[in-house]
């Protein structure tokens, strides 16, 4: 698979997941806290996906 395609999928899922987590779990927080939580959730989801993909790649070869 193309690395750019995989990267764009990871970016899209992390962005959408971070946005949804902030929108539905922390609706009463201020705007600055929401941005900070979005960045936290974005990187958390990003690294989780990278670990899962690395494990799949390791186990396949």
Based on secondary structure, the structural category is mainly alpha
How much of the polypeptide forms β-strand, as a percent range?
Answer: under 5%
Considering DSSP H and I runs of 4 or more, what fraction of the residues is helical? Answer: over 70%
As residue ranges, the low-confidence spans are none
Shape: elongated
In round numbers, the mean pLDDT is: 92
- Structure annotation, total helices: 2
N- to C-terminal distance: 15 Å
Please, how many domains? 1
| Radius of gyration, whole Å | 14 Å
SSE arrangement, N to C? HH
The count of DSSP E runs of length 2 or more, i.e. the number of strands, is 0
Biggest sheet architecture: none
Q: TL;DR of this structure?
A:
Helices cover 87% and strands 0% of the residues. It has helices spanning 3-25, 31-60.
Key words describing this protein structure:
single chain; 61 residues; mainly alpha; 2 helices; 0% strand; elongated
What does this structure look like?
- It is a single chain.
- The radius of gyration is 14 Å and the shape is elongated.
- The relative contact order is 0.14.
- The protein contains two helices and no strands.
- Helix 1 runs antiparallel to helix 2.
- The protein is mostly helical and 61 residues long.
- It has helices at residues 3-25, 31-60.
- The chain has one domain (6-60).
- The model has no long low-confidence stretch (mean pLDDT 92).
């Amino acid at each position: 698979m193309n690395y750019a395609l995989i990267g764009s999928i990871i970016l899209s899922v992390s962005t959408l997941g971070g946005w949804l987590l902030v929108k539905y779990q922390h609706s009463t927080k201020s705007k600055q806290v929401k941005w900070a939580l979005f960045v936290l959730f974005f990187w958390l989801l990003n690294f989780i996906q990278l670990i899962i993909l690395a494990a799949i790649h390791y186990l396949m070869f």
